[in-house]
TrEMBL record:
InterPro entries: DUF881. This is UPF0749 protein YlxW. Residues 41-88 form a coiled coil. Keywords: Coiled coil, RNA-binding. PANTHER family: UPF0749 PROTEIN RV1825, UPF0749 PROTEIN YLXX. Gene3D superfamilies: Protein of unknown function DUF881 (3.30.70.1880). The keyword RNA-binding applies. Belongs to the UPF0749 family. The keyword Coiled coil applies. One of its GO terms (molecular function) is RNA binding. It comes from Robertmurraya siralis.
Length: 233
């Protein structure tokens, strides 16, 4: 009888031990699942936050990129305006240089032609000395033809001509802006030599008329001509 009671106690102890183990295991398993669930939720919230930050940063980048494009377009507009202004200033400077050259205010150098007009040979059978002398209208005809043909600067015996220059006869000499010059008269002009020469040599043109009036006419093409500026006011 005592042996049977003792056996029941042993069985109850074993059952209690197994139940305790199961409850403990179940508790730890539940706690672990709760922890894993909590960690999973936290990680998910963190991922959502990072994704929102990434979206926000991408929107800022797009806005900055658009702003950059607008500024680049503005820079291009300014560059175009500056280029136009630069061209305007260049044209103004070029025009000013042409005006100074035309007024004889600057020293000029370039290719061109030289025309020499000399008195004709004396004819004892001609009582009128004016028939073989170079007159102001001879010089003026040459100068006018050179300007019409594109000469940018002209000088007579080294004296530069301006837009208001005048040429008059005064006995055996001619006066250019009040300065007397004896024959021969050397007219130098800067321009395209071939064009200037062709204009003077055209049939029935300036050269033919002067030669027919007993004026000795000589024409040379030059690779370099230097004309000094007009001195004084």
């Amino acid at each position: 009888m005592k042996l049977k009671v003792k056996g029941k106690h042993v069985i109850l102890s074993l059952v209690s031990l197994v139940l305790g183990f199961i409850m403990t295991f179940s508790y730890h398993l539940t706690e672990k699942n709760d922890t894993d669930t909590a960690m999973t939720n936290s990680q998910w919230e963190r991922d959502i936050e990072l994704r929102n930050q990434l979206i926000e940063q991408e929107e800022k980048n797009r806005a900055l990129q658009q702003e950059l494009i607008e500024k680049q377009e503005k820079v291009l507009e300014i560059e175009e305006l500056l280029a136009q202004e630069e061209q305007v200033f260049f044209n103004l400077a070029e025009d000013a240089e042409k005006y100074r050259m035309f007024l004889g205010k600057v020293r000029v150098k370039g290719e061109g032609v030289t025309v020499t007009l000399a008195d004709g040979q004396y004819d004892p059978n001609d009582d009128n000395i004016n028939n073989y002398l170079v007159h102001e209208h001879h010089v003026f005809n040459v100068v006018n033809e050179l300007y019409v043909s594109g000469a940018t600067a002209v000088a007579i015996n080294g004296q530069r001509l301006t837009h208001n220059s005048y040429i008059v006869c005064n006995g055996p000499v001619i006066e250019v802006d009040g300065n007397p010059h004896p024959a021969p008269f050397v007219i130098t002009a800067i321009g395209e030599p071939e064009v200037l020469s062709s204009a003077l040599n055209i049939t029935g043109g300036v050269k033919d008329r002067l030669v027919s009036e007993n004026v000795e006419f000589k024409l040379e093409e030059n690779q370099e001509i230097i004309l000094e500026p007009i001195l004084g006011s």
